[in-house]
Every structure is written in structure tokens, then in C-alpha cells.
Amino acid sequence: MKKIGLTGGIGSGKSTVAQLLAHAGLPIIDADKIAREIVEPGQPVLRQLADTFGEDILNPDGTLNRALLAQRAFATPEATEKLNTITHPAIEQRTHELFTQAASEGHQWAVWDMPLLVDKGHHTAMDVVIVVDVESETRVQRLVTHRGLDETDARARINAQIDDDQRRAAADYIIDNNSTPEKLAPQVATILEKITGVHA
Ligand code: ADP
């Protein structure tokens, strides 16, 4: 089974493209979802985080208080390193499991939906890289209008990611989402046909 890395800056429409790929029958391995799942109540990672960063990072209902964890875990590089040491192996294991599962189900291709694919250098491990590309001012406006972020926060999040030129340079295929969402489906279909040889 071959791997398609799907990425794009925050607000680029990557999740929208992932839905189109899922609709075409490809299994989607969602990095954000995995990162949330490994800290759900009952997961060993959540216990390790509470042991390391304090019991009060757990809400009364046992869920993770993300804001408090972030405050502590991003306070110093050492604390961030501890966070990564706890979470990364679990994330990697789950990602590997899901790729293995997709292969065992007979899929020829699986998609890794990963916002930081290029930022973290994982694109080199993919057979094909698709980048969803949108001009950054447009992304700011979409994040403010559709996702309720305030403008400063939207800009800060965009600036915290790798720059668009570097992301584009890693792409085998670029999906242009500067226009309307209706323009996405034909681009996805064309790319999928080129990659898999199958007309979606
Ligand atoms: P990402 O997963 O890359 O952060 P999303 O797919 O969530 O981005 O898209 C960000 C927001 O912009 C969503 O609310 C989405 O509905 C909206 N959006 C996506 N594509 C377009 C488009 N072409 N025009 C306008 N809004 C769009």
C-alpha cells in the first residue's frame, strides 16, 4: 500500500479536501484526530501527563484541560520535550496501526491528513504529497469568518507554521483553493486519477 500525505496551512481547506478523498473511498488517517484520541480518559498517555504536569490538568469529569496543559507544557523547552516524549510514541504507534489496518483491508492507497507534514519533515516518507494552497490573507479571513478565530490569533497560527513556499516546494500536486469550494472536487478527481489511475 502506498501513502499520500495531505497537508496545507491552517485554514487552507485541507479538511474539506480530506472529506472529498474519503468520499472517493480512500482511507483517511487523521493526525489531529489521533492526537485527540490518545489523550482521552482511560488512555495511558493521559495518566502519564497528569503524573508529569499535575493532577489538576484533568477536569473534574476526567477529560484533559488542554489550556492548562498547554500553559505548563509550553512554558519551557524542557517541559515541551517532556510532553513530546510522552505523546509522540503513542501517536506514532496509532498512526502505524491505522496504516497497517488500511493495508490489511486491501487498500492500495491511504491518506495521511497531517497539518505539519512538511514542518516536521514527514513528507519524505510519503509516496505522494498533496498540498492545499490558499493565499494567506484569504486564510486569515476564512478562519475569522468560518471558524470564529480572532484575527490576531489566526495570523499567529499561520506564522507559527512553515512558510507557504517551503510547503509548496514539497508538493507533488498542489490543489488551489483560492476560489470557491466547488472548484475543489474537480481538482481532487484529476489528481486522484493521475495518482491511482482510477477515475473517481
Ligand atoms: P483546514 O483543515 O485546512 O484548517 P478547513 O477545511 O477547515 O481548513 O477550512 C477552513 C474554513 O474555510 C472552513 O470553515 C471551510 O468550510 C472554509 N472553506 C474551505 N474552502 C473554502 C473556500 N474555497 N471558500 C470559502 N471557504 C472555504
UniProtKB/TrEMBL annotation:
<keyword id="KW-0963">Cytoplasm</keyword>
<keyword id="KW-0067">ATP-binding</keyword>
<comment type="pathway">
    <text>Cofactor biosynthesis; coenzyme A biosynthesis; CoA from (R)-pantothenate: step 5/5.</text>
</comment>
<comment type="similarity">
    <text>Belongs to the CoaE family.</text>
</comment>
<dbReference type="InterPro" id="IPR027417">
    <property type="entry name" value="P-loop_NTPase"/>
</dbReference>
<feature type="binding site">
    <location>
        <begin position="11"/>
        <end position="16"/>
    </location>
    <ligand>
        <name>ATP</name>
    </ligand>
</feature>
<dbReference type="GO" id="GO:0004140">
    <property type="term" value="F:dephospho-CoA kinase activity"/>
</dbReference>
<dbReference type="InterPro" id="IPR001977">
    <property type="entry name" value="Depp_CoAkinase"/>
</dbReference>
<keyword id="KW-0808">Transferase</keyword>
<keyword id="KW-0418">Kinase</keyword>
<dbReference type="Pfam" id="PF01121">
    <property type="entry name" value="CoaE"/>
</dbReference>
<keyword id="KW-0547">Nucleotide-binding</keyword>
<comment type="function">
    <text>Catalyzes the phosphorylation of the 3'-hydroxyl group of dephosphocoenzyme A to form coenzyme A.</text>
</comment>
<protein>
    <recommendedName>
        <fullName>Dephospho-CoA kinase</fullName>
        <ecNumber>2.7.1.24</ecNumber>
    </recommendedName>
</protein>
<keyword id="KW-0173">Coenzyme A biosynthesis</keyword>
